[in-house]
Amino acid sequence: MLRLNYALVDHVIAISTRQSQWLLEQNILPQSKLTTIAQSRKLDQFLAVPPLQPHQPLILGAYGRFCDQKGFDILLRAMEQLPQLRLQLAGSGEDEAQLRALANNLDQVNFLGQVDNEPEFLANCDVIVIPSRYEPFGLVCLEALAAGRPVVVTDVDGLPEQVQGCGLIVPPEDETALAQALISLSEQPLVPWGNQAKENKINDWQRYLQQYRQFFEQLLGLISPKG
User: Fold this and answer.
1) What rounded mean pLDDT belongs to the chain?
2) Is 42 helix (H, G, I), strand (E, B) or coil?
3) Could you tell me which of 10, 117, 157, 127 has the C-alpha nearest to residue 57?
4) Taking a C-beta distance cutoff of 8 angstroms, is the pair 132, 69 a contact?
5) For a 10 Å CB count at each end of the chain, is N or C smaller?
6) Domain residue spans in the chain?
7) Closest Cα partner for 48 from 207, 209, 201?
8) CA 24/CA 30 separation, integer angstroms
9) Separation CA 146–CA 205 (nearest Å)
10) What whole-number distance in Å separates Cα of residue 197 and Cα of residue 183?
11) Cβ(33)–Cβ(10) under 8 Å?
12) Which stretch of DSSP H or E encloses residue 220?
C-alpha cells in the first residue's frame, strides 16, 4: 500500500534519518524522490527553562500519551528495581488504568495527569526518559533537550540520532537494561550533558525553516519554465 501511495507523489520528506533508511530498505521509493528534514518546532519556551540543578534523589520525568507505543509500562517495570529514584509521569490515554495498576506499589512514582505546561514540567525534572517501542522522530526528546535536560531513550527510529552525547541509549522493550541505565545516572555528567543539549538546540527551529526553504527553492527551480 505504501508503494502504491508513494507512486502517486512527486517527492517525500522523511522526518528522521532512520525513517529515510527504512523507506529505502523496503523499496518504497527511490532515493531521488526522498529528502530528510528532521522535525522541529518553536523552542523559545523550552530554551528559557533554567539550567539543570539535579535533585537528591534524582527526579525522572516522562510524559506523553498513555498507549502501547510510548512504552511507559516498560519504564514502570524498571522502576520496580529503583526505589532510590523518583518518577514524575504525566499524560493520559487508553492505558492509564493498566499503568496505574503497574505502579500500585511504587511509592516513588507520581502520576500528574495531563500537563499543559511542558516547560514547567521539564524544569522540575532532572532527566527525561523516553522508553518508546517506536517513534518516527520524537518531539518529547527535542523538547527535553532544548530545556537542557539529559535524556534516556530507546534505540528506535528517530530517537538515538537526537541524543548527540547528551544522554543514554538503551535497547527497546528491555526493563533490565533501562533500569541499569537509570541507576547509572548518578555517575553521569548530567549538568554538562544538559548544558550541551540546550546549546545543540538553540538554532534548531531556524535550521528547520532554512532546510524547508531550500527544499522549496529547489523544487520551484525544477518546475519553473525555462527562460
Assistant:
1) 94
2) coil
3) 127
4) yes
5) C
6) 44-201
7) 201
8) 7
9) 11
10) 21
11) yes
12) helix 204-223
Determine the residue type at 165.
Answer: G
Q: What is the mean pLDDT of residues 67-90?
A: 97
Kindly state the greatest CA–CA separation across the chain: 73
CA-CA distances (angstroms) from residue 153 to 1, 32, 41, 179, 193? Answer: 31, 31, 20, 12, 14
* CATH homologous superfamily of 44-201: Glycogen Phosphorylase B; (3.40.50.2000)
- DSSP-derived secondary structure for 84-151: TSEEEEEEESTTHHHHHHHTTT-TTEEEEE--S-HHHHHHT-SEEEE--S--SS-HHHHHHHHTT--E
Nearest to 167 by CA among 128, 120, 121: 128
List, for residues 110-168, the tens digit of each pLDDT value: 999 999 999 999 999 999 999 999 999 999 999 999 999 999 999 999 999 999 999 99
CB 87 within 8 A of CB 62: yes
Stretch 189-207: mean pLDDT, rounded? 97
> pTM for this one?
0.93
Residues in the chain: 227
